[in-house]
Amino acid sequence: MNARDVILARVRAATEGAPPVEIPRDYRGPAPASQTASPELAELVADRIRHYKADVHVVDEAGVAAVVAEALAGRGAGRFVVPEGFPREWLPPEGFEWVGDEPELTASDLDAVDGIVTTCAVAVAETGTIVLDAGPGQGRRALTLVPDFHLCVVRPEQVVAGVPDAVARLDPARPLTWISGPSATSDIELNRVEGVHGPRTLVVVLVR
What we know:
Residues 107-207 form the LUD domain. This protein is α/β, with parallel strands linked by helices. The protein has a single domain (36-207), classed as Rossmann fold (3-Layer(aba) Sandwich). The chain has five helices and twelve strands. A six-stranded parallel β-sheet has the order 1-12-7-4-2-3, with helices on both faces. Strand 5 (122-124) and strand 6 (129-132) form a beta hairpin. The chain is globular, with a radius of gyration of 21 Å. It starts with a helix and ends with a strand. The relative contact order is 0.19.
């Protein structure tokens, strides 16, 4: 008998005959429909995303292409991945090269582009988190993990109050990527390093 078996045997002996313990499962559920897609949520999600040191732009839908053009031009380059299903009217008509993912781009290909432009599945106001599920305009997970720059456009109806609301909308069988600001980590001495396991720069365009 090894140490693990000894420990488990002692636990079983100590708990033998003990009454079952009821574990409460009354977690907070989704917010009422009246609290969704409100101006307050839009302001909150913008504030929380900025807290993560991401750039946030709030614009009308007619101004999305201009804001995207300005944000991409600030990178000083012009080759960006655009997944299938991204609304073409949101892309600047000229000045940039749009790269598709068919055939699938390799890690080296993705490392060579200047960034990626996507939509999202859900944006969580309370946490400032953007969730991608590989749906239209989002592409597969690798597309948003390898490039150093990510611009994401969020529609107003995609903003939800909290994580329970997001979970209620999402399909757990899909590949979900939860993004809370640019990629960053800290070592034991709390030295912050950005861009280790995802984009160093995140730009979010919130459509009002």
